[in-house]
Amino acid sequence: MRINKWLNIPALFVLMIGCTVHPDALASEKSVFRQRGEASYYARNLHGQETASGEIFNNNKLVAAHKTLPLGSKVQVTNLQNNKAVTVRINDRGPFKRGRIIDLSRAAAKKIDLLEDGTAPVRIVRID
């Protein structure tokens, strides 16, 4: 018995149409930057110094330093010891101490109760 190979084409066409993904659906599925590690905060003597972005560092603003995220990125930093979170803008590079993933301004560190210990395990999620 000979099977006509053209008989399966309509079924194949319907299958292909059902499996297509609209381009807008792909655009909305951006990968989200997430990172876990140790956070610290800036020393007071850096207040007033120029950052990698060119702005003057202000320990009273909600800003931070990260090694690779684009300058101007906004991230939510959550202290994993108490679940307190703060949103900061990346305006500098660092930290340069091994094992640290982000340096927060004093104001940001205060919001997540990081000041007393000086460091804490955190989760970073890019939100912009």
UniProtKB/TrEMBL annotation:
One of its GO terms (cellular component) is plasma membrane. Its main location: membrane. Pfam families: DPBB_1. It is a lipid-anchor. Residues 1-27 form the signal peptide. The keyword RNA-binding does not apply. Its EC number is 4.2.2.-. PROSITE patterns: PROKAR_LIPOPROTEIN. Keywords: Cell membrane, Cell wall biogenesis/degradation, Lipoprotein, Lyase, Membrane, Palmitate, Signal. GO terms for biological process: cell wall organization; peptidoglycan metabolic process. Residues 35-124 form the RlpA-like protein double-psi beta-barrel domain. GO terms for molecular function: lytic endotransglycosylase activity. It is found in: Cell membrane. The keyword Lyase applies. Lytic transglycosylase with a strong preference for naked glycan strands that lack stem peptides. PANTHER family: ENDOLYTIC PEPTIDOGLYCAN TRANSGLYCOSYLASE RLPA. HAMAP family: RlpA. This is Endolytic peptidoglycan transglycosylase RlpA.
